[in-house]
Design brief:
TIM Barrel; 9-stranded mixed sheet; two-stranded antiparallel sheet; 8 helices; 11 strands; globular
Length: 252
Protein backbone atom coordinates (compact mmCIF):
# COMPACT_ATOMS: atom_id res chain seq x y z
CA UNK A 1 0.00 0.00 0.00
CA UNK A 2 1.26 3.46 -0.94
CA UNK A 3 0.41 6.37 1.33
CA UNK A 4 0.36 9.97 0.10
CA UNK A 5 0.50 12.55 2.88
CA UNK A 6 0.30 15.81 0.96
CA UNK A 7 1.10 17.45 -2.35
CA UNK A 8 1.78 21.07 -3.26
CA UNK A 9 3.32 23.24 -5.94
CA UNK A 10 6.08 25.51 -4.65
CA UNK A 11 9.79 26.20 -5.07
CA UNK A 12 12.55 23.86 -3.97
CA UNK A 13 13.76 25.17 -0.63
CA UNK A 14 16.86 23.03 -0.15
CA UNK A 15 19.89 21.61 -1.90
CA UNK A 16 21.38 22.08 -5.32
CA UNK A 17 18.13 23.04 -7.05
CA UNK A 18 16.99 25.64 -4.53
CA UNK A 19 14.49 28.10 -5.98
CA UNK A 20 13.37 25.75 -8.76
CA UNK A 21 9.56 25.57 -9.28
CA UNK A 22 8.62 22.04 -8.23
CA UNK A 23 5.60 19.88 -7.58
CA UNK A 24 6.09 18.07 -4.27
CA UNK A 25 4.57 14.68 -3.50
CA UNK A 26 5.12 13.73 0.14
CA UNK A 27 4.73 10.02 0.87
CA UNK A 28 4.02 8.52 4.28
CA UNK A 29 6.23 6.16 6.22
CA UNK A 30 9.94 5.95 6.98
CA UNK A 31 12.50 3.43 8.15
CA UNK A 32 13.85 5.93 10.72
CA UNK A 33 12.43 8.10 13.50
CA UNK A 34 15.23 10.69 13.97
CA UNK A 35 14.01 11.66 17.43
CA UNK A 36 17.37 13.32 18.04
CA UNK A 37 16.29 16.25 15.86
CA UNK A 38 13.89 17.17 18.65
CA UNK A 39 11.08 18.58 16.50
CA UNK A 40 7.86 18.39 18.50
CA UNK A 41 4.34 17.69 17.26
CA UNK A 42 1.19 17.61 19.35
CA UNK A 43 -1.27 15.00 18.12
CA UNK A 44 -5.07 15.21 18.27
CA UNK A 45 -5.13 13.06 21.40
CA UNK A 46 -2.73 15.47 23.13
CA UNK A 47 0.37 13.29 22.84
CA UNK A 48 3.71 15.03 22.30
CA UNK A 49 6.00 13.18 19.90
CA UNK A 50 9.54 13.89 18.75
CA UNK A 51 11.16 13.44 15.37
CA UNK A 52 12.16 15.35 12.25
CA UNK A 53 10.37 18.44 10.93
CA UNK A 54 8.06 16.21 8.85
CA UNK A 55 7.14 13.83 11.64
CA UNK A 56 3.53 13.93 10.41
CA UNK A 57 4.75 11.95 7.38
CA UNK A 58 6.76 9.47 9.46
CA UNK A 59 4.74 8.45 12.49
CA UNK A 60 2.16 5.87 11.40
CA UNK A 61 0.75 5.38 14.89
CA UNK A 62 -0.58 8.92 15.19
CA UNK A 63 -0.94 10.14 11.60
CA UNK A 64 -1.85 7.17 9.39
CA UNK A 65 -5.52 8.14 9.54
CA UNK A 66 -4.66 11.40 7.78
CA UNK A 67 -2.76 9.77 4.91
CA UNK A 68 -4.36 8.98 1.55
CA UNK A 69 -4.26 5.32 0.56
CA UNK A 70 -3.16 4.88 -3.06
CA UNK A 71 -4.35 1.68 -4.70
CA UNK A 72 -4.49 2.73 -8.37
CA UNK A 73 -2.10 4.52 -10.71
CA UNK A 74 -4.91 6.88 -11.73
CA UNK A 75 -5.01 8.35 -8.24
CA UNK A 76 -1.43 9.62 -8.52
CA UNK A 77 -1.96 10.74 -12.12
CA UNK A 78 -5.00 12.74 -11.06
CA UNK A 79 -2.93 14.54 -8.43
CA UNK A 80 -0.61 15.90 -11.13
CA UNK A 81 -3.51 16.67 -13.47
CA UNK A 82 -5.11 18.69 -10.69
CA UNK A 83 -2.45 21.38 -11.02
CA UNK A 84 -2.21 24.06 -13.67
CA UNK A 85 1.53 24.04 -14.24
CA UNK A 86 3.44 26.43 -16.52
CA UNK A 87 5.44 23.60 -18.07
CA UNK A 88 6.82 20.15 -17.24
CA UNK A 89 8.14 21.25 -13.86
CA UNK A 90 10.32 19.10 -11.63
CA UNK A 91 8.49 16.59 -9.45
CA UNK A 92 10.00 15.99 -6.03
CA UNK A 93 9.31 12.68 -4.26
CA UNK A 94 9.80 13.24 -0.56
CA UNK A 95 8.55 11.98 2.78
CA UNK A 96 8.96 10.39 5.17
CA UNK A 97 11.11 8.16 3.04
CA UNK A 98 9.74 7.73 -0.50
CA UNK A 99 12.05 4.84 -1.37
CA UNK A 100 10.20 2.48 0.94
CA UNK A 101 7.94 2.21 -2.13
CA UNK A 102 10.80 1.79 -4.63
CA UNK A 103 9.64 -1.69 -5.75
CA UNK A 104 5.91 -1.00 -5.74
CA UNK A 105 4.48 -1.51 -9.28
CA UNK A 106 2.20 1.52 -9.06
CA UNK A 107 5.02 3.72 -7.80
CA UNK A 108 7.41 2.59 -10.54
CA UNK A 109 4.79 2.97 -13.27
CA UNK A 110 4.02 6.49 -12.08
CA UNK A 111 7.72 7.39 -12.26
CA UNK A 112 7.88 6.11 -15.82
CA UNK A 113 4.78 8.04 -16.78
CA UNK A 114 5.83 11.45 -15.41
CA UNK A 115 9.30 11.03 -16.89
CA UNK A 116 7.77 10.26 -20.29
CA UNK A 117 5.78 13.48 -19.99
CA UNK A 118 8.96 15.51 -19.56
CA UNK A 119 9.08 15.96 -15.79
CA UNK A 120 12.46 15.74 -14.08
CA UNK A 121 12.27 13.35 -11.12
CA UNK A 122 13.93 14.24 -7.81
CA UNK A 123 14.15 12.00 -4.75
CA UNK A 124 14.75 13.32 -1.25
CA UNK A 125 15.97 10.23 0.55
CA UNK A 126 17.97 9.24 3.62
CA UNK A 127 20.13 7.06 1.38
CA UNK A 128 19.82 3.88 3.43
CA UNK A 129 17.46 1.85 1.22
CA UNK A 130 18.65 -0.05 -1.83
CA UNK A 131 17.41 0.83 -5.31
CA UNK A 132 17.37 -1.79 -8.07
CA UNK A 133 18.68 0.23 -11.01
CA UNK A 134 18.83 -2.80 -13.29
CA UNK A 135 15.30 -4.06 -12.75
CA UNK A 136 13.84 -0.54 -12.68
CA UNK A 137 15.97 1.60 -15.03
CA UNK A 138 13.71 4.61 -14.48
CA UNK A 139 15.80 5.31 -11.36
CA UNK A 140 18.79 5.96 -13.62
CA UNK A 141 16.90 8.99 -14.92
CA UNK A 142 16.37 10.53 -11.48
CA UNK A 143 18.24 13.03 -9.31
CA UNK A 144 18.88 11.93 -5.72
CA UNK A 145 19.31 14.35 -2.82
CA UNK A 146 21.03 12.09 -0.29
CA UNK A 147 20.07 13.36 3.15
CA UNK A 148 22.32 10.97 5.03
CA UNK A 149 21.52 11.22 8.72
CA UNK A 150 24.25 12.24 11.13
CA UNK A 151 24.66 11.23 14.76
CA UNK A 152 22.45 14.15 15.81
CA UNK A 153 19.46 12.26 14.37
CA UNK A 154 19.61 9.77 17.22
CA UNK A 155 19.68 6.82 14.82
CA UNK A 156 22.28 4.04 15.05
CA UNK A 157 25.17 4.45 12.61
CA UNK A 158 24.73 0.99 11.09
CA UNK A 159 21.15 1.92 10.20
CA UNK A 160 21.68 5.43 8.87
CA UNK A 161 24.89 4.91 6.84
CA UNK A 162 24.76 2.20 4.21
CA UNK A 163 27.95 2.56 2.20
CA UNK A 164 26.91 0.09 -0.50
CA UNK A 165 23.62 1.87 -1.12
CA UNK A 166 25.31 5.27 -1.26
CA UNK A 167 27.93 4.02 -3.71
CA UNK A 168 25.26 2.46 -5.93
CA UNK A 169 23.13 5.60 -6.05
CA UNK A 170 26.02 7.97 -6.66
CA UNK A 171 27.32 5.85 -9.54
CA UNK A 172 24.04 4.73 -11.13
CA UNK A 173 21.69 7.71 -10.83
CA UNK A 174 21.56 10.52 -13.37
CA UNK A 175 22.77 12.89 -10.65
CA UNK A 176 23.16 12.91 -6.88
CA UNK A 177 24.42 15.11 -4.09
CA UNK A 178 24.71 14.97 -0.31
CA UNK A 179 22.30 17.18 1.67
CA UNK A 180 23.17 17.05 5.36
CA UNK A 181 21.37 18.60 8.33
CA UNK A 182 24.14 19.93 10.56
CA UNK A 183 23.88 20.83 14.24
CA UNK A 184 26.22 23.82 14.42
CA UNK A 185 26.74 23.37 18.18
CA UNK A 186 28.55 20.07 17.54
CA UNK A 187 30.85 21.16 14.74
CA UNK A 188 33.86 21.12 17.04
CA UNK A 189 33.12 17.57 18.10
CA UNK A 190 32.76 14.43 15.98
CA UNK A 191 30.30 15.93 13.47
CA UNK A 192 33.13 17.37 11.37
CA UNK A 193 34.72 13.94 10.98
CA UNK A 194 31.33 12.35 10.35
CA UNK A 195 30.69 14.66 7.40
CA UNK A 196 34.18 14.00 6.03
CA UNK A 197 33.60 10.24 6.26
CA UNK A 198 30.33 10.49 4.33
CA UNK A 199 31.88 12.70 1.66
CA UNK A 200 34.71 10.18 1.28
CA UNK A 201 32.26 7.44 0.27
CA UNK A 202 31.77 9.27 -3.03
CA UNK A 203 34.47 11.94 -3.37
CA UNK A 204 33.06 13.40 -6.60
CA UNK A 205 29.63 13.97 -5.06
CA UNK A 206 28.94 17.54 -3.93
CA UNK A 207 28.18 18.17 -0.27
CA UNK A 208 25.53 20.65 0.87
CA UNK A 209 25.37 21.42 4.61
CA UNK A 210 22.09 22.80 5.93
CA UNK A 211 21.51 24.32 9.38
CA UNK A 212 19.52 22.01 11.64
CA UNK A 213 16.25 23.58 12.74
CA UNK A 214 12.54 23.71 12.06
CA UNK A 215 11.83 27.44 12.54
CA UNK A 216 12.99 30.62 10.85
CA UNK A 217 14.66 31.79 14.06
CA UNK A 218 16.64 28.56 14.46
CA UNK A 219 17.84 28.71 10.85
CA UNK A 220 18.85 32.36 11.02
CA UNK A 221 20.65 31.96 14.35
CA UNK A 222 22.96 29.22 13.04
CA UNK A 223 23.45 30.03 9.35
CA UNK A 224 26.44 32.34 9.73
CA UNK A 225 28.45 29.81 11.73
CA UNK A 226 27.63 27.08 9.22
CA UNK A 227 28.67 29.32 6.32
CA UNK A 228 32.08 29.77 7.95
CA UNK A 229 32.37 26.00 8.40
CA UNK A 230 31.53 25.41 4.73
CA UNK A 231 34.11 28.00 3.65
CA UNK A 232 36.74 26.27 5.79
CA UNK A 233 35.99 22.75 4.51
CA UNK A 234 35.04 23.54 0.92
CA UNK A 235 31.44 22.35 1.23
CA UNK A 236 28.38 24.10 -0.19
CA UNK A 237 26.12 25.98 2.22
CA UNK A 238 22.62 24.65 1.83
CA UNK A 239 19.95 27.13 2.81
CA UNK A 240 16.43 26.19 3.91
CA UNK A 241 14.62 28.82 1.94
CA UNK A 242 11.10 27.53 2.54
CA UNK A 243 11.58 27.89 6.30
CA UNK A 244 12.97 31.41 5.93
CA UNK A 245 9.93 32.40 3.86
CA UNK A 246 7.08 30.43 5.44
CA UNK A 247 8.55 29.50 8.85
CA UNK A 248 6.64 26.49 10.26
CA UNK A 249 3.78 26.52 7.77
CA UNK A 250 3.16 23.17 6.10
CA UNK A 251 2.36 22.43 2.48
CA UNK A 252 4.56 25.16 0.98
Amino acid sequence: MIYLVEHFYSIQGEGKYIGTPSLFLRFGGCNMKCEGFGCKEITQDGSEILGCDTIYAVNREHFLKDWQSITRLKELVDVVKGYTLPNAVDIVFTGGEPLIYAKDPIFVKFLELVHARGHQIHFETNGSLAVDFEKFPIYKEAIFALSIKLKNSGENETKRINTCVIEKITTQAKESYFKLSVDVKNLKNDTTQEIANIAAISPKTQVYCMPLGSTKTEIEDTSEALVEFCKLKGYNFGDRLHIRIWNTEKGV
